[in-house]
Amino acid sequence: VSPILMISNPSTLIDKYIQQGSFSGAALVVARHNQIVYEYYAGDAAPDLPASATVLWPLASISKVYSAAAIMKLMEMGELPLSTLVCQVLPKFTGEGRELVRLRHLLTHTAGMIYESPEMETRLIAQTPLADLIEEMYSAPLNFPPGTSIAYSDYHYLLAGHVAATVTGTPFHELVQNLVLKPMGLEQTWFPPPATLHSQLAKVRAVMAEGSEGAMYNSAYALGLAHPAFGVVASAADLVRFALHFAPGGPRIHSEATVRAMTTVQTGLVRGQPAIPALGSSGSIIPWGLGFCLQTEHSPGVFSELASFRSFGHGGASGCQLVVDPE
User: Exposed, middle or buried, 60 (CB in 10 Å: 0-12/13-18/19+)?
Assistant: First the structure.
């Protein structure tokens, strides 16, 4: 449920922003009581690609919630407890406090890892294999002892995905496909998208490594990485269908207990560095669920000034935003 329903004609607002050049195209999909009640597509998603219901939008960091959903299914199956020490699965991940990092820390951004490789743009331009990105991650320093603070990190989800793949012996993108996308019936969601669908992909402006064959969100290489932190693409309606599996009374592939844990505070009153200015200043209390970002009394206005303090969702640097407001 989106607060944008409060606007009498949301299409007018979207059209205004497109005319101003704020963005080239957009999709808005709203669901209420588990039914899609409004869809609007305007402008161009890419050159010669009008925004439409068939366009696939790179979800960027919203991908982390899909990754968390797959890992939580493994938890429910008894294959991967959240208390798992990463070093028990990946013995190379030790030293300088790394041996204290648990899977729960990774899903809640309390493990202390840096955001991503300081050389990430260079790695993209060079079309570095995912295995090499993982290898570089092992030696990345921790900014604080696990569990003592919070700092948003792509590395957290890259590592969590690698832990899951190692434990199961299955590539992580296959886990997401088999444990989340197929059971949810998401037929317009891909991780990674096949080359035959690249003509349906929205193009994101001002990305890292823009203009190269490794451009983040836009290139065949970057999409083919199936990076657990930013690799999912989906139609706007399919993104909403995914979200409904966590909304009150919605369809479920997880238990109600799992959904509750994913969508309520799992970080206590831990303070840290917000991912975006709207989350507060350095040292703010930053509530986080298992995968989902939360709007609470400690973090008002994260998603909308009109959203309740039970709201949860996630944003993506590609310009995408997912918001669920149970109230």
Answer: buried
**pLDDT tens across 269-287, in order?**
899 977 776 667 788 888 9
Q: Which of 208, 108, 98 is nearest to 153 (CA)?
A: 108
Q: Which two tokens stand for residue 294?
A: 């939360």
Which residue matches tokens 């836009």?
218
Contacts 24+ apart (CB under 8 A), 219-224: 219/124, 220/195, 221/124, 221/127, 222/124, 223/58, 223/192, 223/193, 223/198, 224/192
Q: Give the span between the Cα atoms of 266 and 69, in whole angstroms.
A: 15
**What secondary structure does DSSP assign to 207-273, as a single string?**
-TTTTSTT-TTTSHHHHHT--TTT--EE-HHHHHHHHHTTSTT---SS-HHHHHHHHS--STT-EEE
pTM above 0.90, yes or no: yes
Q: Map tokens 């008894």 to a residue.
A: 78
